From TrEMBL:
Known cofactor(s): Mg(2+); Ca(2+)
Source lineage: Bacteria, Bacillati, Actinomycetota, Actinomycetes, Micromonosporales
Keywords assigned: Calcium, Hydrolase, Magnesium, Metal-binding, Phenylalanine catabolism, Tyrosine catabolism
Annotated PANTHER family: FUMARYLACETOACETASE (PTHR43069)
EC number: 3.7.1.2
Pathway: Amino-acid degradation; L-phenylalanine degradation; acetoacetate and fumarate from L-phenylalanine: step 6/6
Chain residues that bind Mg(2+): 191, 211, 215
Domain Fumarylacetoacetase N-terminal: 8-67
Stated name of the protein: fumarylacetoacetase
Length: 374
């Protein structure tokens, strides 16, 4: 059974030979144009549809399921896929206990692995929406200060395999129970990270240039209605009131490929903080989310090393390189390396569905080329 059958129907923005962008759904290895189904699907971005709210989403999903039965199909190879939504703001969280513990052990071996607040609230930082790019966009190697007086291209370029949540309906102080009233769907995320730049700059205000140069997302937004839910992980101590109930968990399995070799299989089901809690925390101070806001889960890592969602963990800060299928060994990313993250989830109708993939290839450049890059 196809993981992109009628049970799934993720939304994307595509163009053909005419260059006109419009909304379609993926069906197997084809795209079905929805521009004749709903006038909001004639727009060059998903934002108007996402802003229309859950009732409109449900009507379109029912209509799309009927439409794809007899509608013309366009082969994926014949279309160009675009960034599916205009990104309003971008926030990244830090919600895998396994990831947080390993990072603490690697970078702060003389201190407690988890920050004191970690079990009390979902820790996060605000990123840059302008540097969110669609899968397939080349990733220029970033420059920055790697230490005192040490400026140059990062030597420790890394990935973070994540799941992203796309806001449709604006709001503030959103309770966890209202999560599905505001979130349109999910995407796969690779939050590229320059670990040496990050390590020198992050105290006391957290990530900055080591994170803000590029974040890749998949071209397909899987609607929440397509996903099965599961109980959230046990949390101890019990969170404060605005973080209860925890909201739904999701059974999403990721696979990370480094130059075509699968090196890790991070399980989202082991995340400590849920997407509903992240949204509640993001807005509890009165901050307003807008249509097109993207917030990401943080690195998805499981209890085993081969479930690590970053190469910092997988190679233990580069000291234990992995061997790829061609026999080469890697601690961090080299120019020309390609990373692809695939995702599969338990679907609401009982069968697994696909989340697609997010991919990027690292390209080297001089400082002057970097300055000219839009």
């Amino acid at each position: 059974m196809s993981r992109f059958g009628p049970r799934n129907l993720p939304y994307g923005v595509f163009s053909g030979d005419d260059g006109v962008r419009r909304v379609g759904v993926r069906l197997d290895d084809t795209v079905v144009d929805l521009s004749d189904v709903d006038e909001l699907c004639r727009r060059p971005t998903l934002n108007p549809l996402m802003a229309a709210g859950p009732a409109r989403w449900a009507r379109l999903r029912r209509a799309a399921r009927e439409h794809v039965v007899d509608a013309p199909r366009i082969p994926l190879r014949a279309v160009r896929l675009h960034l599916p939504f205009e990104v309003a703001d971008y926030t990244d969280f830090y919600s895998s206990e396994q990831h947080a513990r390993r990072v603490g052990q690697i970078l702060r071996p003389d201190r407690a692995a988890l920050p004191p607040s970690w079990r009390h609230l979902p820790i996060g930082y605000h990123g840059r929406s302008a540097t969110v790019v669609v899968s397939g966009t080349p990733i220029p190697r970033p420059y920055g200060q790697r230490g005192a007086g040490d400026f140059g291209p990062t030597r420790r370029l890394d990935i973070e395999a994540e799941v992203g949540f796309v806001v449709g309906v604006p709001g503030d102080r959103i309770p966890t129970a209202a999560f599905a009233d505001h979130v349109f769907g999910v995407v796969l995320v690779n939050d590229w990270s320059a670990r040496d730049i990050q390590a020198f700059e992050y105290q006391p205000l957290g990530p900055f240039l080591g994170k803000s140069f590029a974040t890749s997302v998949s071209p397909w937004v899987v609607p929440l209605a397509a996903l099965a839910t599961r109980p959230a992980a046990l949390q101890e101590p019990e969170p404060v009131d605005y973080l209860r109930p925890a909201g739904p968990g999701f059974d999403i399995r990721l696979a990370v490929e480094w130059n075509g070799t699968q090196v890790a299989s991070p399980p989202y089901a082991q995340m400590y903080w849920t997407a509903a809690q992240q949204l509640a925390h993001l807005t509890v101070n009165g901050a307003r989310v807008r249509t097109g806001d993207l917030y990401a889960s943080g690195t998805v890592s499981g209890s085993r090393r081969d479930q690590a969602g970053s190469f910092l963990e997988l190679t233990w800060n580069g000291t234990e390189p992995v061997t790829l299928a061609d026999g080469s060994r890697r601690g961090f990313l080299l120019d020309g390396d390609t990373v692809t993250i695939h995702g599969v989830a338990a679907g609401a109708d009982g069968a697994d569905i696909g989340l697609g993939s997010v991919s990027g290839t690292v390209v080297g450049q001089s400082l002057f080329e970097a300055a000219d890059t839009p």
